[in-house]
Amino acid sequence: MDFDLIVTNGLIVNTSDVIVGQDIGIKGDKVTCIGTGLRGSPSTARLDAQGGYITPGGVDSHVHLEQPNCPMGDTWETGSRSAVCGGTTTVIAFISQAREHDSLLPLVKDYSSRAKGNSYCDYGLHLILTNPTMKILKEEIPILAREEGITSVKLYMTYDPMILRDREILNIMMASRKLGMTTMIHAENHDMIDLIIETLEAEGKTEPYYHAVSRPKIAEAEATYRAISLAELMDAPILLVHVSSQTAAQHIRDAQTRLLPVYGETCPQYLWLLAERLKGTDKDHFCGAKAVCSPPLRESPAETDAMWRGIANGTFTTFSSDHAASKYHPEGGKKLGLIEGKPFFKKIPNGLPGLETRLPLLFKGVLEGRITIHDFVRVACSNPAKLYGLPNKGVIMPGMDADLCIWYPQGGMESFGLHNGMLHHDIDYTPYEDMEFANWPRYTILRGKVVWDRDGSGLVGEMGAGRYVKRTASLLPGPRNVFVNEWRPPS
Fold first, then answer.
1. Residues near 483 by beta carbon (within 8 Å), at least 6 away in sequence
2. pLDDT tens per residue, range 299-324
3. Buried b (16+ CB within 10 A) or exposed e, 42-72
4. C-beta atoms surrounding 333 within 10 Å
């Protein structure tokens, strides 16, 4: 058997096993063989993993790139570049509908043109719905699922420009259920938050730290429970995105115990950062804006511990960056929340950078014994591929795309403190500045081609090498045809 590339001497990791002493044979863009002592031709390239873990290329299923409402964020070029340098080979980004848009088709065409030819990694697309008309739900969504492979939608239970009423959410669930689509939900109670913001502003409490005060855990917990209830009524699968608190995670766990198709996602910031990061310093009273995201960072280490536990016990299906970055220093970024020298947390763009650091931050948890290497692969590679209909991604086995991330063997990399200048995004800060790392992706391979070589030339992939991937319906359990009473959703 002829190969273009053979990867040797690595520990091949999937969700349930580690394969030792075998090689990975790659022909074209596929893994074609896993076996002992693979022989190639004189033209076959070889890559020695030197005893390090070989994990599937990362799948980051929650990424915001080059959205019209985030002009100071990463472009497709800079964001996807950052992704492959951090071991991620596939991202799924968002096409965002505004209230005034009465059709999704022009939005899909426009956003697809931004990505085409500009991505270093493979990519898919989600839809954010804010004006779910019957025409969109009955005519356009089926076309986009069937012809474009867009098989997931995201809804918001908060934010004035995006919030949907419960009835609108039910209508979307009804439509997505028929098509085997995944409904992603940002769950926070809008009225609770609105009331707290109003009273904080009246008291002059507008510094970045009060962003966390304005969005308490109970707001996330209530909306999470309500979203699960709506989904149970419709017998519709849902994913609760960027879960930050143990009460919300417990609602998801309880639903899963009852065998509901309810899935959860958490993010790096909820594993490593606390609300104190939103406080300013003597040198820069506004620098807490760098850590403003929603849901906010939580107050107690008990919450970050609960997020690690949720990965380890299977509550969380996916682990995503929620990369929604804005620059800090230029006008138009985070400093939109600084008006005539006075901070207004409500005006600070939400979101943190994290595409490149997602996998290294999760791998730290493996090294520290918080999770296993199998947990790592499950939430960062395999489950995102299954949940979002990427049947050729997320697993190392013959016939699958040859997407690999090769790590250093234990002790094979000198530990370092992270600085933003080391990263490849186009954002002027990282929330993980000075954090120590004992491992980092050494090589990233996208469909059989090395695109990141940390010890060699660094980024060696090409812009435009990333392909658009049409997705199928979710490969994880969906509707069960079990209902709360004799009523049934219209078919």
1. 233, 235
2. 999 999 999 999 999 999 999 999 99
3. eebeebebeebbbbbbbbbbbbbbbbeebeb
4. 22
